[in-house]
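Re: that backbone. Tokens:
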């Protein structure tokens, strides 16, 4: 019986040692740069004719760790580059903006340049859950300023629109898609856990630790999603799925690269025209740690 009890304790200790606490382990003044690329292919059936739009967004973000507490990490983020194109096979190029090109005639490029080097402060739990974001209002004010928008009504209308992309809640929901994939308890290879994202892209995520060693680990995820964009003129609601692959550093928790493949279908309702447009979106989003 003593030998049997010893074996139980030994095997139990092996199980415990195989479990790993995956969390962010960052140090004050640590810096890192992230490149995001998002490709979106939109197909809308307008009275039997397919209207296709391709959106491409590329941005670079610089992060600096400014405070580390027991449960929370505070980071400062600035955008250092942003580029966006929108095109259609039938309509040609609809939009092209690049902050690296000094074009004062293009209002969109000027607005994007207004987002550069404006600090945003992010407080993050060690799982990657964003606790709070501040500074989004400074991004929006800078965009309006560089575009020389001074009319009060226009400022109000644009501020409401920009809040959907650069407001604190929108930034928090966006950043969580590249940070919030870690479990709240120790896991071992093949263990799974769940979390949810909120915002315009709501998703119920199921994650699995697929491999682990002292240097790197891999997490895969599948999700059921609802994509929505609702305002006074247009209401779009799509449902779908996402598949995510993450390669990360074991020592810091920072990802090396993330790939998110998504497919969503549903309807876009144009309220003023009383029109319902079947809509499908496929997307690929990648995040890459540059240093």
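Recovered sequence:
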């Amino acid at each position: 019986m003593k030998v049997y009890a010893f074996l139980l304790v030994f095997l139990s200790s092996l199980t415990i040692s195989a479990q790993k606490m995956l969390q962010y382990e960052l140090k004050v003044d640590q810096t890192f740069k992230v490149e995001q690329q998002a490709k979106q292919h939109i197909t809308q059936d307008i009275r039997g004719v397919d209207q296709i739009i391709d959106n491409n967004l590329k941005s670079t973000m610089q992060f600096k760790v400014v405070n580390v507490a027991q449960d929370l990490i505070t980071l400062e983020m600035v955008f250092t580059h942003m580029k966006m194109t929108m095109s259609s096979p039938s309509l040609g190029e609809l939009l092209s903006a690049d902050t690296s090109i000094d074009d004062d005639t293009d209002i969109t490029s000027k607005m994007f340049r207004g987002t550069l080097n404006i600090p945003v402060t992010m407080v993050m739990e060690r799982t990657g859950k964003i606790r709070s974001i501040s500074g989004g209002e400074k991004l929006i004010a800078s965009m309006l300023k560089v575009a020389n928008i001074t009319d009060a009504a226009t400022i109000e209308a644009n501020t409401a629109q920009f809040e959907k992309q650069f407001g604190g809640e929108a930034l928090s929901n966006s950043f969580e898609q590249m940070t919030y994939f870690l479990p709240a308890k120790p896991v071992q290879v093949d263990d799974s856990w769940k979390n949810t994202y909120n915002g315009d892209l709501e998703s119920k995520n199921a994650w699995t630790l697929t491999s682990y060693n002292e240097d790197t680990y891999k997490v895969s995820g599948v999700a059921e999603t609802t994509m929505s964009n609702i305002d006074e003129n247009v209401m779009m609601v799509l449902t779908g799925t996402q598949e995510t692959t993450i390669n990360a550093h074991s020592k810091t928790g920072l990802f090396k690269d993330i790939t998110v493949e998504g497919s969503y279908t549903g309807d876009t309702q144009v309220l003023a025209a009383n029109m319902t447009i079947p809509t499908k979106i496929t997307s690929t989003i990648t995040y890459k740690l540059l240093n």
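The longest strand covers residues 49-68. The chain has five helices and twelve strands.
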